[in-house]
Structure formats: structure tokens, C-alpha cells
Design brief:
disordered C terminus, 5-stranded antiparallel β-sheet
């Protein structure tokens, strides 16, 4: 899923848990994953690493068809800027990437100059 999440997608988020300090990351990728539980660390099956996830409140209900909860997961892939600063995303960012400093429970996160251009480029453009 893209970064185009809406607040209605996140209505039952209670808390965002960071596995890594988001201050040092220009961007994180976000996606809605289906999980068996609403309030534990979700499984992670992508390349790269999970850097955070959302916990859901007690009012969250699983999907009636699958019995799974939709939860937001934050991750980075091996070719992302944090691992390869001069790589593919030296400038720009993946479509699902947002600035981790704009993420809060029930808030989708936003693209910023930092997430799109990197903290070094964003700092250079600030007077």
C-alpha cells in the first residue's frame, strides 16, 4: 500500500512503537499489513528490516472474512537511503515513504523536504 493512507485507515491506532530511533532516518516506508493480533510485534516477511509498527486499541475488530487486523508497519529495504546514501534514493524517495518525524497514532505521515531530498539537502536549503 502507498503512503496515501487516510486517517480512516488508522482510526484504531493507539500507539506507534519504534524499533529504531526515527530521528536518524530521512524516511520510512509504510504499509498496512494483516496480522493475527492487534497489540504485539507483527511478523515481518519483507527484505530489509522493520523499524516500527502500530498497536491497535481495544475497539479494533478483525476483518470478518479473514479474522485478521490491518496494522501499519514501518520498514526500510536494503537499497534505501539509510543503507546506500549514494544509491537509487540519493534524491527522491519511494512512493510509500514518509518522514518518520510526521508519524503519530492515527496520523498517516507526510512527505517533507527531508524525506524527499535527505536531511543534508533539506538542511542546505534552509536559510
Amino acid at each position: 500500500m502507498s503512503s496515501l493512507l487516510t486517517e480512516s485507515d488508522l482510526i484504531h491506532e493507539a500507539e506507534v512503537v519504534w524499533l529504531e530511533n526515527p530521528d536518524g532516518l530521512d524516511y520510512v516506508r509504510q504499509a498496512l499489513d494483516k496480522t493475527k493480533r492487534r497489540n504485539t510485534k507483527p511478523p515481518y516477511a519483507r527484505d530489509g528490516r522493520m523499524v516500527g509498527y502500530a498497536l491497535l486499541d481495544d475497539d479494533a475488530s478483525p476483518d470478518p472474512d479473514s479474522g485478521l487486523y490491518r496494522r501499519r508497519v514501518f520498514f526500510l529495504l536494503p537499497h534505501d537511503r539509510d543503507s546506500l546514501p549514494d544509491g537509487l534514493y540519493r534524491e527522491g524517495a519511494p512512493g510509500e515513504a514518509v518522514d518518520p518525524l510526521t508519524i503519530a497514532p492515527k496520523q498517516p505521515g507526510a512527505k517533507t523536504p527531508r524525506s524527499q531530498n535527505g536531511s543534508t539537502a533539506a538542511a542546505a536549503s534552509t536559510p
